[in-house]
Amino acid sequence: MAAGQQAYAAPDTEATDSLSVPGYEQLDELVIEATRPLMQTDGAKLTYNVEEDPAASTSSALEILKKVPQISIDNDGYIRLNGSTAFKVQLNGMENPMLKQYAEQLLQGVPASMIVKIEVITEPGAKEDAEGVAGIINIITERSQKKDGYSGSVSLRAENRSLTPSLNGVFKKDNFTLSAALNYQWGFAPQRGENNTITTYLPPAGSGSLQSTMGQRSKHHFVGGNLNMSWEPNPSNLFTAGADIFYIDANLYRLYGSTQSFDAAGNRQWSFRQDGKGNMTVLNVSANASFRHNFRPEGNYLVISYLYNFGKNDLWINRFYPEYENYTPSYLYQNETGLSFDRGHTVQADYANSFGTEHHLLEVGAKGIFRHNTAISDYAYGDTPDAIAIFPLQSTDILQPQNIYAGYASYTGKFAKLGVVAGLRYEHTLMGITDRLDAADSFRNRLNDWVPNAALTWNFSASSNLRLSYQMRISRPSIQQVNPYELYITPFELRKGNPDLTSERSHIVALKYSSFGRVVGGSIGVEYNLSDNAISSFTYLLPMTQGQAIVTSFANIGKKQDIALTGFMNWNIIHNMSLMLNGRLAYNKLSAPAEGFRNHGWSGNIAGNWTYNVADVNKFSAYAAWFSRSLTVQGKTTGYYYYGISASRDFLADRSLTLGVSANNFLQKRMKFKNYTATPNVIYDVTALNLQAWSVGVSLTWKFGSLSAQVKKTGVELNNDDINTSSNKGQGGGL
User: How far apart are CA 534 and CA 545, in angstroms?
Assistant: First the structure.
């Protein structure tokens, strides 16, 4: 069957032990195979079928993300959805705060062969949490299975800087299904990054400039795993349970930096050099359980779900001054430590009622999220390693309680060729900060958000439609964005949070046309996005009396307006060869009226992905993507690009052994990413260098068993999409 052709599954019937009919010969089992298209969309959700990508056996999950329309990985390694970092990442429909915060590191350690598909949900609807302005990226790893037995795979991927073994399997017996996965990555070669910064002071605040270099080298270990089960005692009831864990240990064995000061004439006034080291460990554990009861008639159900999440992040950095000229450090040795905990309980109930000969669906539900996050930070100094003492004025010990109470109602209907979706979600948030060192800095805040959405879809045929949609999305500040702790990157550069942040609200209107055929298919659309109180990274200069440090913090200062033309096309050139193209062109307007900042201009991107299967045994793939500059309220960042090729071959009679090779960005040793920021007092120009942007690898995968089953789901997942994780990403910062 040609790629893109609709595939139909036969009913799941029990086979008899033998079949003997006079006049007919006994035939061998007849198997009809169908190939799913690489990509599908209904206007609200785009699905990239990773199993249909020949590069899946040779790539990491992070590399595969680069090929998914609307998703990009910038030169700093940060994931972006339509150019934004304000989105959510889910794994099998579930999300936790640590997964959002460390998605890049987590997905770099997960083999793409463990992924079934990647969903980009740009219209989540009232059933999902209101958080995530750009949308949701949902990574599905669970595979389908029907007969009793077991199946799985073992793989080993070796790249020039890492080694990644993985194991996954599924077992089914009667109404019980169990699946498990385990993967490990050893980053044995150094990851190297460097930032070069030119800070120009403007009158009357000052004159002259600072030139600094900051770099790091690191190695890491990553361990991830999950266990899921389902039990269906009868057609009316289904029980599910699962657990996930991941652990990252990053050894920052070399942290180095140098700073030089120049006067207005370009003469060097003073300089110093810093050396250091550090370590970061991240642990996340989550567990979930749910129960579903089906009512008659079919389509009516009740689901009750529970999710627990625990995360721990431990960071320490030691620095010292081995060399300085005409400069006197306050202290020769400095130690910084940071310890944070994320704890959360989520409970949810969902009810669905299908009526009107199943052409109408009413869904209602309620959800409660109860979080208790902690952040502890200390700064110590001394003239010798043995004489280091904590500086209390720069220590923090804060709690971030956050309780969210939500309810929603959603209607989905079909009237001949017209489809209608309408929903309303209400979220009441109790949030704040408890400063255990200074009660005067504690605060509480209550937020009330009504979040509507609506969509009309006109179906011209089974393969083409026109969709008009509206939705409102919000982004609440994370504990990293509200934590007031001052983290000094250098003596003249620091970052800190803003405890006064409130939720960001965005309104999105989109019109999309989609059409899919056996040879050519695609989608084109236009969308408008408006936000009046966007959470924005904000840079300013401290006065001379406070050291003239460059401060990067956050504030609700932004007003954003974007209008964009988006589209993608899939072309089945010949049998088993396809080309996919996608792109986006946008005009952006940003402003911070109170601070007097305005910016506007064009941005865009284009990407292509080519795949070719020869006799379904030899598989080839190539991709490339280019992204233009992006704008900030105070400046701009330069564009970036990436590309890659891969090939694989199946061996053995049942094609259960696969050998693959891949190469990415192989024509360049390093990649640049520049960020330009201008304020009334200072110009801040950062060039971030990825010193090892290229990678080559080889992989070997063995599949065992012959099943195709999956752990059943109750149909409702606990997705906590309410935390804004946008930070100073892609801005040339270190660590």
Answer: 31
